[in-house]
Structure formats: structure tokens, C-alpha cells
Amino acid sequence: MTIGADDELLQDFLVEAGEILDGLGGQLLELEQNPTDTNLLNAIFRGFHTIKGGAGFLALTPLVDVCHHSEDVFNQLRQGERTVDGDLMDVILAVLDALNVMFDNLRGGVAPEPAEAELMRRLADLVAGKSPAVAAPPSPPPLPPSLMIRMPPSRPCSKQRIAQSLV
Asked: Are 9 and 28 in contact (CB under 8 A)?
């Protein structure tokens, strides 16, 4: 779906929220070094909150959804309900990548697509206090019997038979 890239409200949002999004990148890198910095946690929370608010006003639901869940994670961090760790940072940096793609789409006049379901699941897991580990790929289905190779029953192997087969 195309979006009015010349819409003045949208352009204002892209400029102001784009600056916040750019700032979030640096703040997240700083957070890795200072994971208990309350002022930094508050600033990151406000960044996601502000982007969410503007996106909501413009009915950009994919942006709202990602920012809302991210905001929830940072609210838990601010409240001391969880701590910053590698898994959390992996998810939040993936969120930042997804938001940048959505912003690029908007700048090109294309409505943003929802974030990948796996990213949203990992964010929801963080909010629920679970480990946001990447889901293992599904196991391949078993082969149908018609494609299976039938092998004759094996015979016990002896050293002598192995030696004879090598000659």
C-alpha cells in the first residue's frame, strides 16, 4: 500500500521521530556499557514512547506494535524487574533494524509491513520474563515410505571379512 509521502504531518513525523531513532542507536550502544544507568533507561523508554505516539496518531500500526512492546521491556528495566543482558540487547538491536526498515519504507511512500513474527515473539517473551532465544528451525518431515531405501539385513562383521574385502 502506498502512503502520501508528501503529507506534511508524515514528513514532520519522519524528521522528528527519525532523529529519535538515530539517537536510540547510540543510546543502546551506551547501555551495553552502562546497563544500570537510570537516566539512560528513561531516555530510551521515552524514545520508543515518542515514536509510538506519533505513529499512533498517523495510524502506522506496525510501528506502534514494535514500539509498544519495546517500551514495555524498557519499563521493566526502569522498574528493576529485569536486567540488561546479551539476549535482551540482541532483540532490541533487531527492533532498531526493523524500525529503520519501516522508516525507509515510509520515506519511499510505502506503508510499513508488520515486524517479523519471530521478532514480535521474542519481544513478547522478554515482556513475559522468558528467555527470548531464537526458535529452532522446524524438523523436516519424515520421508514417505516410497522414497526410503530398503537395505538388506546386515551381517555381523568380523576382522577377517574386513581384511578380505581390502585385498
From this structure: no
